[in-house]
Amino acid sequence: MSSELGTSENPRKWRFTWEAQSHIPTLRLFLFDQGTKPCIQCKNLKVDLNFERSLLLVSWFEEETEISFRVPVPRVLVDIESPISFRAMEDHIEVKLVLLLPVDHHIVSNFNSILNMSEATSQLFSMDSDIKSLSSRGGVHFYCKSCSTNLTKKPLSSFAEMPSINWREVADNWFGACCCSFGGISEKLVARYANSYSCGEESCLLDATSVILCKDDLVGFEFPDRDGDQNYESEPDCTEDDCINEDMQDAGGNHGRCVCPTVKKEKMSDLSGKLNSLHIQKEPFVDSPGYKIIEKEITVPSLVGTVPVSYFSENVASAPGCCADNRIHVLNHDKEVCTPDTVSYFSENVPSAPGCCADNRIHVLNHDKEVCMPDTSEISKEQKVTKASEVLANKKSFLNGFLGNIFMARSYNLSKDVEWIKFACPQCSSLLGAYPCADGYAPLDGGVRLFKCYISTCLPVCESGDLFRKYTLERMFTSQLLESAKDELSFRTVVRDLRTKSPVLQIVLLNPNSWCCTGYCLGTEDTVDPVANINLYPAIKVLFSDCSYRTESQIRMIEEWVTKNQADEVYMLDHLISELIVSLEAAMDMYPPSYTFLQGLPLSSLPR
């Protein structure tokens, strides 16, 4: 049934807005249209309540013509014994009803939940509820809410909560901040913590506003061919014979890059011959801890490859004006090879195993072509430690909180090394989310953030089976805004562009606990059919200012306002801010013109 008046009863489309405040047992009604001045035109104004049908009948005479219409009353506990107060104002009619209990009283809330009239606000954005509901489905596809396009290759069945970016606050004892610290094990705990929440295939992480999917689980998306910061390019013109893999050396952290000495191959054979001509005595070899016997023929490449580069750089001095690259200290000077005295080097720096190497000058004995070398298992342990350190380096952005909630970020969640790229639907190009990257490549952590307000969990979208049907941009913003106001004790917020860092929107929170509903009045020609029930929904009342097209001087004034009032600062994608401004401006139509400005700023509301 249409909620608008017929043209014969009211050609100007009267609009109603019910409003109630938290803890106040009063329900207020605004009635207004665009061309009527009730204080002048509405003579003999009457307001009657039809309690059985939940209707309010409003009538008056205008130029000897009776005007009347009906207004549906929301489900509240009205005190029918109290009189109805009303008055005609300059641009609206105001009606007040007395309630038995405030609309947010726990008895009223329990009554509403029993009747299934509305979903509890506290459960609307419950993380535990989302994870349980998604996990119970067995497998879930995600769809674009705008065009119903499937976004995932296969159903996802593994769901977990995204860790808090404030994890350090609850991990003080990991780093020795209290008497029960774990000491040196803290790095292992942090590494395990970081790896536990990687964006793996066929798994999904959730936070308050987003779901985080692996880029390989998405359909129809191509990312640049780069895997974060874990792939490295080798130096040009580098062959296996010419290079030394630093992974086999010390924990230098070069991740497998090749360091190529500039020694010609023909000169390496000459140097090998010199070493083979050395007189090496054969003595009984005793296998000792830390050393093993392996079959290998002594050559210069194998000999150099077994020695850490750091030994040369720290212990071998180059000849004056000779060796600029002290890592290898082997340079080609017009077919003359500059090399350190390997015999004296080994005798001074390499300890021998007990009972093994009597000739300590070189510490490499030929036991019937058996070479005495350090136990590689010890090197393996060192490599494991090195790899653990590399994991921490790769997870640095995550551990520093730079990969957290990007729907509404704070300054400490942003880094100049991490750029957030918009992620759009391949079919309709609607915004779906964003992903972090470095230097314009693929997702830094392999994950793409999809905002819950733009995706659906089933088809058709926004139906009863859609677990994200209640998520809207306005509700998600309101939830984050109220959480911020509670944590920061600030009711003034400036929203900045995530890319330019310029202020785009000012918000002043007036009332975080308002309840309202709006619609168009009903005609009186149809009094038989039942009237559809309406419910009050929770909202916030705010003052706002669009700063998108301000001049430089006005921007400076806004910055001064932020500093003076210690306003909270948040960062959002420009597309999200633009949608919020449109919603705020549209919500101004809920109130008569005399109620749309306060202290020079527009007054509006957002659902919560």
Automatic annotation (TrEMBL):
Superkingdom in the source lineage: Eukaryota
Pfam family membership, one: HECT_2
InterPro entries per record: UBQ-conj_enz_E2-bd_prot (IPR019193)
Protein name (Swiss-Prot/TrEMBL): Ubiquitin-conjugating enzyme E2C-binding protein
Organism: Vitis vinifera
